[in-house]
């Protein structure tokens, strides 16, 4: 007869991933590379914002991009036009990237050669928020047409993010979007959240955002 | 689907524990799923077979224990168990809610066949 033994575990299902993410951060620190994890819903303006951000910073810091979007062949071409190295990550059909997949990507792109590596995560607000990728900072883009109640509907992503970009503010007059409310709701979830209202189309607000990012990169890499 | 990624993380973690502790084959995995974890238990059950197929976990059993959710209203301080997608306090209709219990998903225990003779 087989005997059965019960092993008590009592650990979060994210425990192993979190440990690996911490190892990644240590390696990044040692090699002076800043990893930014960019999350949002599809169509919020990740690619447009990224291209403007690259244009503002590429003469000052060495930037690489890792894209996890499932159909981003088009996006990859647009990024390539900026002259910045980019690679495509393989999520194996998953709805998020975990620390293991991120680590593979970092090796493939040769992260030591960059000051800033941007990870464009899979486009949704639920799954990527749960898996720590090893990023130094998490950034979320919320666009005006998505509505101001997102922090109530998707609380987790607001608690794990360091910065919130509110994009497409050029269309504010056409939408029932309350900028003050979104700030209030988001700060309720995370009082330390930095909020940057921008228009990736007109360039409004971009400077505050890129200045913040540059400062974060410099501080982490130890050359401020 | 979201639940597939979570199950995948669970199986990899159990496999790591099994190797480290040199345990026999797994018979059953018990998870605690918080009501406010955002996870749909039925989806976890439905995708389990597919995620386990072709791995050492094929044919093993999954058991789920639901941990009740509890939220606090920051306006009137009342605590309540949220139902469905309600985003408002039942007492004052406040929208500033903080989850205080049932947020997590945990591997509670695993049941293995003990290879040792009695
Ligand atoms: N009005 C306005 N439109 C914008 C702005 N930023 C992006 N868009 C438009 O929004 C659409 C989506 O922008 P993308 O940059 O491709 O968004 P994305 O998040 O990369 O999209 P996916 O990769 O498909 O998820 C495009 O039509 C952009 O031109 C903005 O600030 N204002
Ligand atoms: Mg894109
Ligand atoms: Zn209340």
Give a quick set of tags describing it.
heterodimer; A: 224 residues; alpha/beta; Rossmann fold; B: 118 residues; alpha+beta; 3-stranded antiparallel β-sheet; elongated; binds guanosine-5'-triphosphate; binds magnesium ion; binds zinc ion
What can you see in these coordinates?
The complex is a heterodimer of chains A (224) and B (118). The model of chain A has no long low-confidence stretch (mean pLDDT 91). By secondary structure, chain A is an alpha/beta fold. Helix content of chain A is 40%, strand content 21%. Chain A has a single domain, classed as 3-Layer(aba) Sandwich (Rossmann fold), CATH 3.40.50. Chain B is an alpha+beta fold and 118 residues long. In chain B, the strands form two sheets. A three-stranded mixed sheet of chain B has the order 2-1-6, with helices on one face. Chain B has one domain: hypothetical protein PF0899 fold (2-Layer Sandwich). Helix content of chain B is 26%, strand content 31%. The longest helix of chain B has 19 residues. Chain B has two helices and six strands. The chains are: A alpha/beta (224), B alpha+beta (118). At the A-B interface, β1 and α1 of A face α1 and β6 of B. The site of zinc ion has 8 residues of chain B, from loops.
Which helices and strands occur, and which strands form pairs?
The complex is a heterodimer of chains A (224) and B (118).
Chain A: E1 3-12, H1 15-30, E2 34-40, H2 46-57, E3 63-67, H3 73-81, E4 86-88, H4 99-109, E5 116-120, H5 127-130, E6 137-143, H6 150-153, H7 155-160, E7 163-167, H8 179-189, E8 194-197, H9 206-221
Parallel strand pairs in A: 2-5, 2-6, 3-4, 3-5, 6-7, 7-8
Helix pairs in contact in A: 2-9
Chain B: H1 2-20, E1 26-34, H2 41-52, E2 61-67, E3 70-73, E4 79-80, E5 97-101, E6 105-114
Parallel strand pairs in B: 1-2
Antiparallel strand pairs in B: 1-6, 3-4, 3-5
The complex binds guanosine-5'-triphosphate, magnesium ion and zinc ion.
